[in-house]
UniProtKB/TrEMBL annotation:
Coiled coil: none annotated. Residues 15-24 have a biased composition (Basic and acidic residues). This is YCII-related domain-containing protein. Residues 32-142 form the YCII-related domain. InterPro entries: Dimeric_a/b-barrel (IPR011008), YCII (IPR005545). PANTHER family: BLL7163 PROTEIN (PTHR35174:SF4), BLL7171 PROTEIN-RELATED (PTHR35174). Pfam families: YCII. Residues 1-27, 82-102 are annotated as: Disordered.
């Protein structure tokens, strides 16, 4: 089973604090974006979905993330047999190659969340509360902050990025 999104087909609304921070792009925050990946397994690749008990537990868990102002969005993903993989050669004259799924489960994720947290330790504590079964694996990956790019992220690129974020579907749904 793989359904961290609990059937969500839309981003969750941000907390008032998150909205206030988004309104003032120049306000520094200690918050970090974390991508939380649920690793695929043979069951998720076979399309096995959760039963009512697990869906209820995941719904309660997701609600606790919402109540804490942590959850930005999350979704379960279909088996890789319904997906594709695009590989780029790096040569503009050489077209990208496309491979149709399925792919080996050990290379895949079957769901994800995006969380807004202060640090990795906080992410670990939230993940440890997740109602997953024996052998389930969840990976925590912090997002890259603009300042991590140093001088490569010019002022012009920063402005363009800010405008794109304001125009994104997620931002429009949050507003």
């Amino acid at each position: 089973m793989c359904s961290p999104g609990d059937g969500m087909k839309r981003p969750l609304l941000p907390t008032e604090d998150r909205q206030a921070r988004q309104a003032d792009e120049n306000q520094p925050t200690d918050e970090m974006l974390f991508a939380i990946f649920v690793r695929a397994n043979a069951d998720s690749e076979a399309g096995q979905l959760a039963d009512t008990a697990l869906l209820t537990a995941m719904s309660n868990y997701n609600q606790s993330l919402v109540d804490a102002g942590v959850l930005i969005t999350g979704e379960g993903l279909t088996p890789s047999s319904q997906g594709a993989r695009v590989t780029f050669s790096g040569d503009p004259s050489d077209p990208a190659t496309v491979a149709q799924g399925p792919f080996p489960p050990e290379e895949l994720v079957c769901g994800f969340w995006l969380w807004d947290l202060k640090n990795k330790e906080e992410a670990i504590e939230w993940v440890k509360k997740c109602p997953m079964g024996k052998g389930a694996v969840i990976e925590i990956r912090p997002g890259i902050k603009p300042e991590d790019f140093g001088e490569a992220l010019t002022e012009e690129l920063q402005k363009k990025e800010a405008e794109m974020r304001k125009s994104s579907k997620l931002a429009k749904k949050e507003g």
